[in-house]
Amino acid sequence: MVDELLDRGDEVEQTPRTQSESEDDDLAVSLSALSRLSAVRLGLEDLLTEVATFAVQAIPGADGAGLTLIEANRADTIVKSAPFVREIDDIQYGLGEGPCISAAARGIPMRSGSLGGDPRWPRFGPQAGRLGVHSVLSLPLIGADAVVGAMNVYAHAKDAFDERSERLGRLYAVPAAISVQNAQILAQTQRLAAKFQSAMTNRAVIDQAIGILMSRSGVTQDEAQARIRLLSQRENTKMAAAADGIVTEAVRRARARRTEEP
């Protein structure tokens, strides 16, 4: 009896998975991978590239994606998941017109299924269409109530993105924005630390050069610093570089004297 039931069970067909269930799984996999990204291990641009790559898996119909990080007083960081994305984004930023620019400026998603004839971007759209890219979904990345960047998802087919694609894209964009902002903060902190360390090193070199000039010429501290400043202007270089030259020359002379001693 048991064997008969087992045999019947083998004959029962498994219920096929729906497209929506498969797409939900893709989103879940992408979100899981996103949560494991480490800005310390990858660095800023590599992490942004991973975020863009996972977006292609998360959003149905996508063939490639690009991500733009917006930073005050710095050039925008732009990455892509596929070579054609760079070409499309270069057109967009070269013209100063396109869905990513609109999404970042307005803080809302932008979707188009026929870029070649979209009146919102009369210069960008036709150029993208001629390159065989007809659909786009641009999503602002919003962190701490500010737009930190935007994500472009492209497809070669027309009308590749529907309302469901946009909804899944919005779901992905929330943790993506958090990852991007965390990576941005870490990169800014590292740049500040490097700048502070450089300033400390430069200050130490300048102080050494001031001490050498005071000892050698009997000038005051202010006079020694003025001499270094004058030297840097004459050589068209920074004060730290001029000071380093003074220290290096003093060390060379000291070694030469030591060599000459009997």
What does this structure look like?
The longest helix is centred in the last third of the chain and has 55 residues, at 163-217. The protein has helices spanning 2-11, 19-35, 39-42, 44-58, 83-95, 99-106, 124-130, 163-217, 221-234, 239-260; strands spanning 64-69, 77-80, 110-112, 135-143, 146-155. Residues 1-15 have low confidence and may be disordered. The chain starts with a helix and ends with a helix. The chain is of the alpha+beta class and 262 residues long. Helix content is 63%, strand content 12%. The radius of gyration is 30 Å and the shape is elongated.
Percent helix: 55-70%
Number of domains: 2
Mean pLDDT: 80
| Helix-strand category | alpha+beta
Alpha-carbon distance between the two ends: 109 Å
Query: Can you count the helices?
Result: 10
Please indicate the percent range of residues in DSSP E strands (runs of 2 or more).
5-15%
Number of beta strands: 5
Q: Specify the biggest β-sheet.
A: 5 strands, antiparallel
Report the principal-axis shape: elongated
The helix-strand sequence is: HHHHEEHHEHEEHHH
Give the strand line-up of the largest sheet: 2-1-5-4-3
Q: Kindly provide the radius of gyration, computed on alpha-carbon positions and rounded to a whole number of angstroms.
A: 30 Å
CATH architecture of the largest domain: 2-Layer Sandwich
